[in-house]
Each structure stands twice: as C-alpha cells, then as structure tokens.
Please model this.
Amino acid sequence: MEKVNCLIIGSGPAGYTAAIYAARANMHPVLYQGVQPGGQLTITTDVENYPGYPDGILGPDMMINFEKQARRMGTDIRYGSATKVDLSSTPYKVEIDEEKWIEANAVIISTGASAKWLGLPGEQRLNGMGVSACAVCDGFFFKGKEVAIVGAGDTAAEEALYLSKLCSTVHMLIRKGEMRASKIMQDRVLNTPNIKVNWNTETEDVIGDKTVEGVKIFNNKTGEKTTLTVSAFFVAIGHQPNSSIFQGFLNMDDAGYILTEPGSSKTNIEGVFACGDVQDKIYRQAVTAAGSGCMAALDAERYLSAKGLH
Model:
C-alpha cells in the first residue's frame, strides 16, 4: 500500500491552494483531482471578482493556472477520485477509484459542493451561457437586463435582492404559494419594486440558441403557460456538499457540510482538515475557498510537525 505524508482530496481553488502551501513547506503533497478537476469554476465563463486579474479571466483558464502553480511547487497531481475512507486510525486510509488504497499521515478534504439543478434540458445546455447557480459570481454580466431566478429559501431571496441592484427586473419563480425564506427576507423581496414574484410557478425549460433568451413557465394551479423573455436564468435551490464518503467519521451539519473548529480547518478527527465549499455553505466564493485551502495546509503542517512527521 502506498503511503504519503499529506493527501489532498479534490481540486478547485481550495485544493490547489492547499497544495501550493503544502508543497512549499516540503510536505510532499499528493492531490487527487476528483470527478471534476478544477471544481465548479471549470463550468463558469468570465471570472471578474478574483483579485489579481484586472481584465478578468475564464474560469477554466484560472484553474489551469492554479494547477500549473501547484505542479511547479512540487505537488504530485493525479487523476482519480476518493471512493471510500477509513479514518478510524492513523495512518488514515483512502480508497481511490474503488481500486487501490493509500495511507496518509494527514488528509486535507477539498471535495467542494455541487449545485442542485432542476434537471431541464436547456439548463445544462446553456450552463455558463446565461444559466448560473451563483448570482454573486455572474449577476454583473447582466446589468440592466431582465433575469429570472428559481428558489424560495433564504439563499434565493438573498440572490434575488443582489440581482435587483444590478438588473432591470428580477422574475422570482416560486413553486408554491409561499416562500420558505425567513420573514425578514420575504419582506425585503416583496418590498423591492423590480422583483416580480411568480407564485405557484414551475419552470418547463430554458430556451435559447447560444445564450439564454427566455424561460418557459407554467402555473401549477391554473395550468397557464407563459414564456418570460430574460437574458439569464439563476438556480438557487441549494447546494449539496460532496461529503458522503466521510459520513460516520466526520461531524457534519444537517445538510452534510463538514464541521470545522471556528477559525481553523480542523475537523473532529486530529490530522484531518476540511477546506472550501465542502465546509462553507455561507460564502462559496473562489477567493474564500482559496483562503481556507491556505489555512488547511498551515494547520496540516503544524499537526505533522507536532507529531514529528515533518
């Protein structure tokens, strides 16, 4: 069985940043990229809110740069996904692609979270071309335009309010006759003039050739069908942290996000650290993920040094 000093599970801004710091600290990190090398940014287009890119950068290009930097520092980057773990004793054991097991003195988890989608044909076809699961990331590109957002919780309300400051009209599509959002968030939405709430409304499909041109909707009470002419379609029905293989070992909240000690990346198991969206359901930004990746590598270095393994 192969044994490594520091194993990083998952890529994206958190994993690659952890790798950069771990490699520079001579921890000889091995990183497995996961099912989506580079993470969620690889399915976005322009990234304009990450510091250091005054002209913006394409999401996939940014992740290529992250990967190149991690490799240049000496990270052993490999294709493959963690499919099972045994964190009951040290060294920790991680199964890769249901084929082989690796032992590690320290484990950094950066498996991210996946946006929940409605499962519409046009939704996936136009993903990154007007369809988005992050209003904060992509709302800027639709300044002064009409957009639609689906969702009824606090996140959907927050994103609708954010979009209302940029877009001419925000059509909020809510499946029921009420919102799940907190009362204060509901009040804010309902008192914002350019947010139009569509109750009892479901989305049939997103339409457009190369960009979003509209959304087909229907009222599930009356059966009435309508097509909204919009330039973007935002999905805010939640995210699912990619944490299932760690259940039974790591403490998580009700949604499956890994719990870490405040101000650190430490989990309930010594020597196992979590960073990025798998433990952050609040911010979910590339820059905060990168910051937490830095924290995880520093925490891992201190742990390994204290154990005399570094």
Summary: The chain has two domains: 2-114+239-306, 117-235. Helices lie at 12-24, 59-72, 121-125, 135-138, 154-164, 183-190, 286-306. DSSP finds seven helices and 19 strands in the chain.
